[in-house]
Amino acid sequence: MTALVFVDTNVLVYARDARELTKQPLAADWIARLWHEQTGRTSMQVLSEYYVTVTRKLEPGLKQGDAWDDAQAFLSWRPQPIDAALIRRAREIEQRHRLGWWDSLIVAAAQLQNCTVLLSEDLQDGGAYGGVTVRSPFTFMLNEPIAAYAVPPIVALSHPPRGRPKRAE
Q1: Which end of the chain is more exposed for a tag (fewer CB within 10 A), N or C?
Q2: Looking at residues 124-141, what average pLDDT do you find?
């Protein structure tokens, strides 16, 4: 089984930013790998941020139709919706790891989608958040095995139950 990889907004944007001569090909290669392996995941938050960034902030910006086509294609990655489960998990992450709210939402979405790797330039490379390891797509080489980041399953201990033994009747 191949590990799932959550992709943050900045990676999607760099893949479309022709001004970034070093980062653009690396981001595009990661996106192509995840399409090929069918292991890419993202969130509705990321797709919304992507659309706004590439149409309004990127110079030259993408045409709205092209940005929409990209966003619509990424819907096949089953983006995490913004729902009660995501908000609750993000709040736990915000408190436990002292991350900002928007970053907590990204980490929470990666966790809820059972991703082992979060590709992002915005969080500390190598940071671990409850089974999700952040890797920068610009230092994490394509040939490195993603499966190495998989969290080993928790082994259930076989201790006897606590408390008084029940009396035989």
Answers
A1: C
A2: 92
- 140-157 in b/e form (b: 16+ CB < 10 A) is beeeeebeebbeeeeeee
The whole-angstrom separation of Cα 55 and Cα 153 is: 42
Indicate which CATH number applies to the domain containing 134: 3.40.50.1010
pTM given for the model: 0.84
What pLDDT does residue 155 have?
A: 41
Cα 1 to Cα 63: distance, rounded to the nearest angstrom: 38
Distance CA 73, CA 130 (A): 29
Identify whether 167 is part of a domain: no
What residues pair up with 40 in beta bridges, in sequence order?
5
Domain count, the chain: 1
Q: What distance in Å separates the CA atoms of residue 136 and residue 86, rounded to the nearest whole number?
A: 23
Q: Is the dihedral of CA 137, 72, 56, 44 positive or negative?
A: negative
Q: pLDDT tens, 38-74?
A: 999 999 999 999 999 999 999 889 999 999 999 999 9
Domain that holds residue 40: 5-149
Contacts for 154 with CB less than 8 Å, ≥ 6 apart: none
